[in-house]
Amino acid sequence: MSGTTVAKPLTRRASRGGSRRRKRTVEQIIFTTLNTTFLLALAALMIYPLLNTLAISLNDGNDAVRGGIGIWPRVFSLQNYNVVFNMTTIYQAFVMSVLKTVVVVATNLVFTSMLAYALSRKEFIFRRSITLIFVLTMYFDAGLIPNYLLIRDLGMLNSFQAYWVPTIISAFNLIVLRTYMKSIPDEIIESARTDGAGEFRMWWQIVMPLCKPALAVVGLFVAVASWNSWLDTLLYNSGDQALSTLQYELQKLLASSMNAGVNSVAATGSAQSGGQVTTPIALRSTITVVAAVPILFVYPFLQKHFVSGLVIGSVKG
Length: 317
Known about the structure:
Blueprint: H1 2-57, H2 61-64, H3 79-85, H4 90-120, H5 127-136, H6 144-153, H7 161-164, H8 171-182, H9 186-194, H10 199-210, H11 212-228, H12 231-236, H13 246-260, E1 265-266, E2 269-270, H14 280-314
Antiparallel strand pairs: 1-2
Helix pairs in contact: 1-14, 3-14, 4-8, 4-11, 4-13, 8-14, 9-10, 11-14, 13-14
């Protein structure tokens, strides 16, 4: 009898718990379905322009003028890429772009993180004043001509220094890194200081390893900006072909194509080869793909740090 009496409540409780679980499961299924549908539609909107650009770049130039190309080439052709990669300066410019991006990212991360570490320490009495000065630079800029005159007066025209010296410290990246460093417990810094570590050693061996997510985010921002930049080459280093970058060479090729107004003429000569020609719309898509591919290869290695670093570094501390 006692066993029967105990079994009935247990059975009822189990059935109630099962109904609750079933109710939650239905809600989760509905939410997951709607969320997945929305994200798939959003992903399609984002992916379609990329696939369309790739399809146009792989399509015959004359046929691309007709329009109506979706995500698959209508008349497959590699002539557009032949025009781009047959430029005599393309490979040297690619190496210069890689070197420029690596140096800019390295110097920006080192100097910005050093300043961010100093501004994140409560014992530094001038941290608010210096932070305010850097924040003001985000809203007030001298302009293009004063910047050019400054680079000229510093003797950095037609030199590699014109690429990385003006980008040593970024105010936005400084705020992100400073905020992230302020989230590091003070006990870790005090423990290292008690063990005899100096400020430089604490920054390099303690703080920097803990800031890998934020450094990955900032590094990606700086790398994309440096890789896509061509105006600095035009303004400061256009007089030295050895300092020309990939984006600048592609920009010259596209400008030459657009100015021709007919079947494209490349910067180094005719774009016609083997009876095939390219057109501005096809060449523009090809240049976009060529310029974007290197960054697309870099991003997967930084993705695991990207979200956490951006969220934590952007929260006001």
